[in-house]
Amino acid sequence: MFEHGFFGNVLSKYNESGDSVINNSNSILSTIKPGEFFLCVGTAIVIGFLISLIYMVTHRKEGYSQSYVLTMIMLPTIVAAILLIINTTAGALTLAGTLTLVRFRSVAGDPKDMAFIFFAMGTGVVCGVGYIGFALVFFAALAIILFILSETDFGGCKKRHMTLKIAIPENLDYQGVFEPVLAKYTTFYKLRRVKTTNFGTLFELIYSVDVLDNIDQKKFIDELRTHNGNMTINLVFFRYDDKIYEN
User: Who is most buried in 83, 108, 173, 238, counting CB within 10 A?
Assistant: First the structure.
């Protein structure tokens, strides 16, 4: 099964004999033995399933979509099968170019979701070119790192950074209106953006805030509503939501 060692290429004998699409009009799939084909594709399926498990474990707190879980299983298998059929550097580059044109109908809520997509594609590519050993080691190393980072909450903010969006009537002078409430419930606040909405009949104030620990969020919002005429208020649990960046 591993004639060239665990880290060897299970398809290397075809490359050595010159059997490739670039030199032969026939696909290398016609010369690959069924056992080798199923070894590469089967490994991709197993790794895809394991990646989906890692994805579920690392997202168990914030939740996840079933479609993403199924995607993790399908992607490595699809990529590996296509690479086994084309099996050339030019073909692999064509596949990569095609995948860059794919757009998801729903935008990922977390950049980490897209990273898992590339993780699954990467393992599929390694399996598709025949490096089964490297694919397993690549998966194991990155899976362990992801699990440790998730359990230790590496990079997580210790403060409660949020984005506050307040809708107000166009005739309301907002300067100094909400500051007393914000000073009461936050350790930091700063107005980041003011924009018109609803064809100019409303204004939307967007603040970056660091809320106090264990505050009563309903009471916080209720006090803000008394100053904006009981209009819409959004307290978003991501500080830089809506692309509000600090200078």
Answer: 83
Q: Is the pTM of this model over 0.70?
A: no
Instruction: Say whether 207 sits in a helix, a strand or coil.
Output: strand
pLDDT at position 100 is: 56
Q: How many CB atoms lie within 10 A of CB 96?
A: 12
Asked if 186 and 93 touch (Cβ cutoff 8 Å), the reply is no
Instruction: Please return the burial class of 220, using the count of CB atoms within 10 Å of its CB with bins 0-12, 13-18 and 19+.
Output: buried
Q: Which of 120-129, 182-191, 210-219 has the highest mean pLDDT?
A: 182-191
Coil, strand or helix: which one is 67?
helix
How many percent of the chain have pLDDT more than 90?
A: 33
Q: Using an 8 Å Cβ cutoff, are 170 and 201 in contact?
A: yes
Token couple for 177: 């209106």
Using an 8 Å Cβ cutoff, are 142 and 136 in contact?
no
Which is nearest to 178 in space by CA: 136, 209, 133? 209
List the beta bridge partners of residue 208. Answer: 163, 190
